[in-house]
Design a protein that fits this description.
With 132 residues, the chain is mainly α. It contains four helices and no strands.
Length: 132
């Protein structure tokens, strides 16, 4: 039996852990919004270096990388992140105005952000691949 001044250690979490929650569209979209923000930051760094290197006549270094299959995947994902972050940002602007907080509206706007991202990304890349 523990002494009166000793504390008993209980092996349990102090607060609910993420593993007990079922992923919902709102939480998944929130996490994705943060991830796409970081991806846009990384892409902006690459774009900045491309511009800086082009000033010194070495833009072919990055241009050669961007037009490889891996580079094209990077550009595709970067454009998808751009459209997602843009559309979800507009959704947040409506929330800032106090509109669209009903659960049904939140879910519908989340699905609209996903489909809008897919449509805008596909449309952009279709236009790029067609040369228009």
């Amino acid at each position: 039996m523990p002494k009166k001044d000793q504390k008993t250690v209980v092996n349990r979490p102090l607060s609910p852990h993420l593993s007990i929650y079922k992923p919902q569209i709102t939480s998944v979209l929130s996490i994705t919004h943060r991830a796409t923000g970081f991806a846009l930051f990384v892409g902006a760094l690459v774009l900045s270096w491309w511009i800086i290197l082009s000033v010194y006549g070495c833009s072919s270094c990055i241009t050669g990388l961007l037009f490889t299959p891996v580079g094209k995947v990077f550009l595709f994902l970067w454009s998808a992140a751009l459209y997602y972050h843009l559309l979800n940002g507009v959704r947040h602007l409506f929330w800032d105005m106090g509109k669209g907080f009903e659960i049904k509206t939140v879910n519908k706007s989340g699905v609209a952000v996903i489909f809008g991202t897919i449509l805008l990304t596909a449309g952009s890349w279709y236009s790029i691949c067609q040369g228009g």
